[in-house]
Design goal:
One of its GO terms (cellular component) is cytoplasm. Its main location: cytoplasm. By secondary structure, this protein is an alpha/beta fold. It has 15 helices and 24 strands. Helix 6 links the parallel strand 10 and strand 11.
């Protein structure tokens, strides 16, 4: 399995292109099930998760063309097979996003339960309850969700007791083909949800309240094909902002959007990082010292859980202490022991970690456990003295496109070792 070798200490300088967002592209691909298409997605990232979703949609019967040169994905045709098998769903939780579109359009779906993953149990009860409220009959059998709505779904008022990105996306897609009006209350407001809603509108859906926590959808009989540009990846942008900050460098994040960073930009500024909007993207630099800042993860526009591990790496070399509280996932501190192997001073208990900054981290062999934990170890390696080897990088390839090439282009000493 591939490893990443880093020799730390070089301040990063230059321009980094930001790819299309994984977490926008995956639901947009699932939206391809709602139409015969073609649905053409531009600015599509080239990632392992995108290949997994393409594989899943192909086995449902769609034609999926991923033109990596043109960075486009074109989806066309109608699903013939309504089953999403365990072998594909277990690889990637976002596979469950085929459930809403399949049952809304074809009146039936059989989708493997995704199961837990490294960061938590991640149930899908809110997805299922919402579909039931829209008239679907749901049974769980042998690890599969069997959903049936032979006469189609009906609009409903769905109040989420907890904000869920995936449940909002699944039910938003289902509502587009339901009969009558659906209201999603306490809906997630992440930029990826607005991106999905805008694409659905281009396909002919009627949605109001985009960007708010109350989405109203007037169902239509069918949706058409469309062309849509995937939003830039705010988590990739935030990750590279921290790469610049942790090395005392200066980078231009091409295409990144300040309004999509939510609380991340404010918190980085509080820590001593300069973040400025430019016509081509975001300029991020750090000329002076870093200071410890407390953060708590929250749904958008709060500080993103997908930025927590990277921010912790930064706080490892800040002056003073930082309390980091994870409120979204129950087990998202697996990077802590690995960062400690590099000399970080961290105490954690339950949902909170106290990080006491040290002047220098030291390079070490470390093990990646999930996507954002993996990249946090790369960030720590960029700031550390000596060599860091990040093992088990397949997690990284799920969500970062050519991460080592992008970092090497701005001066990092980093390479992938195959094998
Ligand atoms: C592909 C994708 O976009 N993944 C993102 C998405 O994941 P995902 O859509 O899985 O995350 P959710 O927003 O649904 O999860 C938020 C919380 O709600 C809980 N929950 C969720 C659904 C449900 O039916 N029942 C329930 O209890 C989850 O266990 C978690 O504790 O949003 C997360 C939170 O911003 C991000 O970390 C992931 O990167
Ligand atoms: C947790 C993440 O992804 P997923 O929901 O696909 O596991 C992530 O992108 O950080």
């Amino acid at each position: 399995m591939d490893r990443i070798r880093i020799r730390g200490g070089t301040p990063l300088e230059g321009r980094i292109p930001i790819s299309g967002a994984k977490n926008a592209a995956l639901p947009l691909m699932a939206a391809g099930l709602l139409t015969d298409g073609p649905l053409r997605l531009l600015n599509a990232p080239d990632l392992a998760d995108i290949a997994t979703m393409a594989g899943l949609l192909r086995q449902h019967g769609l034609t999926v063309e991923h033109d990596k040169q043109a960075r486009s994905i074109t989806l066309s045709g109608a699903a013939r097979n309504l089953e999403a098998p365990y072998d594909l769903v277990r690889k990637m939780r976002a596979s469950v996003l085929v459930l809403g579109p399949l049952v809304a359009r074809f009146g039936e779906a059989k989708v493997s339960l995704p199961g837990g993953c490294a960061i938590g149990t991640r149930p899908i009860d809110l997805h299922l309850k919402g579909l039931e409220q829209m008239g679907a009959e749901i049974e769980i059998e042998a690890g599969y969700v069997l959903a049936r709505a032979p006469r189609g779904l009906k609009g409903a008022r769905i109040l989420f007791p907890q904000v869920s990105v995936g449940a909002t996306e699944n039910l938003l897609m289902a509502a587009c083909l339901a009969e009558g009006e659906t209201e999603l209350v306490n809906a997630a407001r992440e930029p990826e949800i607005s991106d999905l809603a805008e694409c659905l509108m281009r396909m002919g859906a009627r949605i109001e309240g985009i960007g708010t926590d109350r989405l109203r959808v007037e169902g239509t009989g069918s949706l058409a094909g469309a062309t849509h540009r995937v939003v830039p990846d705010r988590i990739e942008a935030g990750t590279f902002a921290i790469a610049a900050a942790i090395t005392g460098g200066r980078v231009l994040l091409e295409g990144a959007r300040l309004d999509h960073l939510g609380a991340t930009a404010r918190i980085l500024r509080e820590a001593g990082v300069e973040v400025a909007e430019r016509p081509e993207g975001l300029r991020v630099s750090r000329m002076n010292g870093l200071s410890g800042v407390d953060v708590m993860t929250e749904p958008f526009p709060g500080f993103a859980t997908d930025m927590q591990a990277q921010f912790m790496a930064l706080m490892c070399v800040a002056e003073g202490a930082s309390m980091i509280t994870e409120t979204i996932f129950e087990n998202r501190f697996m990077h802590v022991p690995e960062l400690m192997r590099m000399g970080a001073r961290i105490n954690y208990h339950g949902h909170s970690a106290i990080v006491r900054g040290v002047p220098k981290l030291s390079g070490a062999p470390v093990m990646a456990t999930d996507l954002r934990a993996s990249v946090s170890l790369i960030l720590a390696g960029l700031a550390a003295e000596g060599e860091t080897i990040v093992n088990r990088v397949y997690h990284l390839d799920r969500g970062y496109e050519r991460v080592e090439a992008k970092l090497a282009a701005v001066g990092a000493e980093i390479e992938r070792i195959g094998g």
